[in-house]
Amino acid sequence: MNLNIKGQDQDYVVSLIGELDTVATTEQADTLSQVLKLADKHLTIDCTDLEYISSAGLRFFMQLKRESEAKGGSIVLENLNEDVNDIFRMSGFQNIFEIK
Predict the structure, then answer these.
(1) How far is CA 82 from CA 2, 25, 26, 44, 53, in A?
(2) Whole-prediction pTM value?
(3) Domains of the chain: which residue ranges?
(4) What's the maximum distance between 2 C-alpha atoms anywhere in the chain?
(5) Residue pLDDT, tens place only, 44-95
(6) CATH architecture assignment, domain 2-99
(7) CB–CB of 14/33 below 8 Å?
């Protein structure tokens, strides 16, 4: 998995590319921690190129949501493909996150 972070001031777009699974969350821990540092900003998570998300990826999203709420930030998810959207729907995450 790779990710790109673009933005300035209070608005950032984080593009997720590949699979967000246990291996990716472990290997990309430093990069994902950079996203967590932006939790006080408005984050748009672009999932156009996110092919798969596991329970480890869902845990990362929950951690990001908790930190964002605690720091006054906000998160919007966009461009979920059908498979990722199904995982969010089955796990109930569609009721937790704003998805466009």
Answers:
(1) 20, 22, 25, 19, 12
(2) 0.91
(3) 2-99
(4) 35
(5) 999 999 999 999 999 999 999 999 999 999 999 999 999 999 999 999 999 9
(6) 2-Layer Sandwich (3.30)
(7) no
